[in-house]
Amino acid sequence: MSTQPIREIETFENPNPERDYTIRISIPEFTCLCPRTGQPDFATLELEYVPDQLCVELKSLKLYIWSFRDEGTFHETATNEILSDLVIATEPRFMRLAAIFNARGGIYTTIVTEHRNSNWRIPEKVELP
């Protein structure tokens, strides 16, 4: 069992690459440090993606997220860096990351960033009677 954070994201083969489906992952314990004050910032990360050939392995994702705990970084930087690293690792059809930060000084911050493969088309939503 790993006792250290890592910056490597492991993947596994998508068991159903022929189908568009959405994977949603909620990470309620994200922490980093404010680069100005050194105080901790807390957030819930909401990741959703449509995989192509690869899916993110959850234990490695947990260890990767842990690696931000002692890092001084702006909310915008951390959110975009995490999305970029996940896109590089998995090459998804679509991926969106929302970082919902807890209040600091009476201000809530939410950062939403996304990636869309240029060859992927959003399927039409089916409305059943």
Give the helix/strand layout.
Layout: E1 11-13, E2 23-33, E3 40-50, E4 54-56, H1 58-66, H2 75-90, E5 94-104, E6 107-116
Antiparallel strand pairs: 1-4, 2-3, 3-5, 5-6
Structure, explained:
This protein has 129 residues and is an alpha+beta fold. It has a domain of 84 residues: GTP Cyclohydrolase I, domain 2, CATH 3.30.1130. Helices cover 19% and strands 38% of the residues. The strands form two sheets. A four-stranded antiparallel beta sheet has the order 2-3-5-6, covered by helices on one side. A hairpin with a 2-residue loop joins β5 and β6. The protein is globular, with a radius of gyration of 16 Å. The protein starts with 10 loop residues before the first strand and ends in a 13-residue tail after the last strand.
A few lines on this structure:
The chain is of the alpha+beta class. The protein is 19% helix and 38% strand.
Distance between the termini: 49 Å
The helix tally amounts to 2
Give the strand order of the largest sheet, numbering strands 1, 2, ... along the chain. 2-3-5-6
By DSSP, the count of extended strands is: 6
Characteristic terms for this protein:
single chain; 129 residues; alpha+beta; GTP Cyclohydrolase I, domain 2; four-stranded antiparallel sheet; two-stranded antiparallel ribbon; 2 helices; 19% helix; 38% strand; globular
